[in-house]
């Protein structure tokens, strides 16, 4: 079983390496957007349009498709060979393209209604701009859907670097287009930047899948194919569940539209920052663990339970220091990243508050994401829908109540609490399905994490007391301060966890040993 975890950690570390470039470029993308457009009415309209297109992408492609495709494709590849797996992938490609055509057409037709639902607080001019941008963006779905299918193929074949780094091309294209043409165009330019990036992201992953021997040239789906039928049957409830989960960002947009101008932009900037650790650690681990869990399902509940437990622990081991650090220095991070150009004092402080609230939810997101992958691997579609439903219900209730209390900060805190609750629901349901508790939070492990967190907190606080953040200094000095406090905190966390003999270090060492053997 330790070999399974070491392999998962190795694949997750590969994903992290590739994702790092993408997430850094994503931050650069938002920094440039903030400097040019600030927190404005037109940018609010663009973000509503992008949210709608992105919602369809996450639902149809990267969400339900991945959850339904990867476990079945991985088992077909292991049990029936590459020829069968290639045929299944081509049929899935044909079904996906057909579904995308339908969704894009319906999306363009119903755009005015969708924008009205997404941002009911927009006035006439602002709503018209959001409608126009949304219609232009919907074809983006086709490109990223095929990219997501290719990602599923590559992940099932233990190829993780290209899928992780492919979004970097998208961000690089966005940055290039905006920098070159922003002075001669309005916010509509951002649509073309997104579209060009989506095409490059698709092309790279399709080429990589072809190099691995799986060409995703679509073929007509066969009605009597049992594995394709099972994939579709899993896809439908997963799509229903994930459609509920994707309601969470929609809730923030809807309620944010009733707040002051710039509220949606502030939440988007903060969310972009939190996507760096979320994508670098949480999503990387969840992507790596899904094929691993799909394989170990046949090894029995004991092996599956241990793999889930250790995967969640590793995710928390990696995300806890980031959570604590982000909460402690959110103000300084936003100052370095965005405080320039049209991004003024109000936007700085508001985005810092939102980042703090989002950061509180990282551990819950880590648990919830890995547990959801475990439910997918076991084919427990009903339980997955219950977990996502719980996050939406609690997010809706908390967003409404907290918005009245602390404004846009409440819209950032609500999903953090909701994801933590849904993680607990997922752990409970999975425990019932595998015949016993997962045993995540043993006394020894919790004690070690608590001690490590205290040491990290004290080291960061000592650094701030010895050298307070130089908010009036040059960008280079402020950036250096962020880098040094990050190194100081992570070093102290690494030393104390290693000294306490946390088992996660053994998995990391096992992953590096496996990498050396594979060379």
TrEMBL record:
Pfam families per record: MurJ (PF03023)
UniProt GO MF annotations: lipid-linked peptidoglycan transporter activity
Transport found in the keyword field: yes
Swiss-Prot/TrEMBL GO biological process terms: cell wall organization; lipid translocation; peptidoglycan biosynthetic process; regulation of cell shape
Location of the protein in the cell: Cell membrane
UniProt keyword list: Cell membrane, Cell shape, Cell wall biogenesis/degradation, Membrane, Peptidoglycan synthesis, Transmembrane, Transmembrane helix, Transport
Topology within the bilayer: Multi-pass membrane protein
GO CC terms, sorted: plasma membrane
Residues that span the membrane, as ranges: 95-115, 135-154, 161-183, 189-210, 314-334, 354-376, 383-402, 408-431, 438-460, 480-500
Pathway, per record: Cell wall biogenesis; peptidoglycan biosynthesis
Keyword Membrane: yes
NCBIfam families: murJ_mviN
Family listed: Belongs to the MurJ/MviN family.
Stated name of the protein: Probable lipid II flippase MurJ
Origin species: Dethiosulfovibrio salsuginis
Gene name linked to the record: murJ
